[in-house]
Design goal:
Elements (H helix, E strand, L loop, with lengths): L4 H4 L11 E7 L5 H14 L4 E6 L10 E2 L5 E2 L2 E3 L2 H7 L5 E4 L8 H11 L3 E7 L11 H7 L2 E5 L1 E2 L6 E2 L1 E4 L15 E4 L1 H7 L7
Parallel strand pairs: 1-7, 1-8, 2-5, 2-6, 6-7
Antiparallel strand pairs: 3-4, 9-10, 11-12
Helix pairs in contact: 3-4
The protein binds adenosine-5'-diphosphate, the ligand Cc1cn([C@H]2C[C@H](O)[C@@H](COP(=O)(O)O)O2)c(=O)[nH]c1=O and zinc ion.
The ligand Cc1cn([C@H]2C[C@H](O)[C@@H](COP(=O)(O)O)O2)c(=O)[nH]c1=O binds next to helix 2.
Length: 201
């Protein structure tokens, strides 16, 4: 069971309370999007004004909605640059951002500005890429966040808990959209059994 800061503090963000940043990170299939949707739905139930964003390049399941692997879904606004989020958040109380690994580093400054202006910012994204390296702005966001939740999947090779996303194709591009056809969740042992860091370009 995760601790849910906003709800634990009474559900509402009082006039005097400042904002904060929550990061939900982990491998693919670890439940990041499910957990993001769960927190956002509860904020809606608490009558808070919620805005949700995702990078425009993430068209894997749906052009606009944020969709989890088990088909939970919530409406969102696709944006090209992190800066666009500032223009679109207006008087919202809670800002949700999915697939944040695809945003530029500017997302760090944007999230700080949103939280400093009193908003609750909930960010979900991959902490590591297919080579086991830190992914985009996520590590920096973990550094400035008040709350970090690292979720884990099930290793598809041995059934243990998984923190790595193993790419089944030989493609070396950092960005390659896909799901079970291209990636599987793996534990450390099973990831490095089949991935040789020396082969990196
Ligand atoms: N290897 C796996 N480990 C855990 N869950 C998995 C796995 N493969 C598929 N799933 C499904 O994926 C769901 C999580 O999806 P989602 O929240 O979209 O994950 P993420 O956003 O972290 O990729 C789980 O509830 C489960 O139904
Ligand atoms: C590891 C890795 C993943 N991707 C892509 C694959 C998916 O489209 C998303 C991750 O989605 P999820 O909600 O976390 O399942 O990212 C990539 O482009 N590069 C990578 O190294
Ligand atoms: Zn394993």
């Amino acid at each position: 069971m995760f601790i849910e800061p906003g709800i634990d503090q009474g559900g509402a963000m009082g006039a005097k309370s400042s904002g904060w940043i929550e990061v939900i990170c982990g491998s693919m299939f670890s439940g990041k999007t499910e957990e993001l949707i769960r927190r956002l739905n509860r904020a809606v139930i608490a009558n808070q004004k919620v805005e949700i964003f995702k990078p425009a390049i993430d068209t894997r399941y749906h052009d606009t909605n944020v969709v989890s692997h088990n088909e939970n879904s919530i409406r969102s606004t696709p944006v090209q640059f992190a800066d666009d989020i500032l223009l679109l958040t207006g008087n919202s109380d809670v800002v949700g951002i999915d697939e944040a690994q695809f945003f530029d580093k500017e997302l760090v400054a944007v999230s700080r500005k949103l939280a400093n202006s009193g908003k609750r910012v909930i960010i979900a994204g991959l902490d590591m890429d297919f080579e086991g390296e830190p992914f985009g702005p996520i590590p920096a966001l973990m550094g400035i966040a008040e709350y970090v939740t690292k979720v884990r999947a099930i290793c598809m090779k041995c059934g243990s808990v998984a923190s790595f996303s193993y790419r089944l194709s030989a493609t070396k591009d950092k960005v390659m959209l896909g799901e079970k056809n291209v990636y599987e969740a793996r534990c450390r042992k099973c990831f490095y059994e089949d991935f040789d860091p020396k082969e990196k370009l």
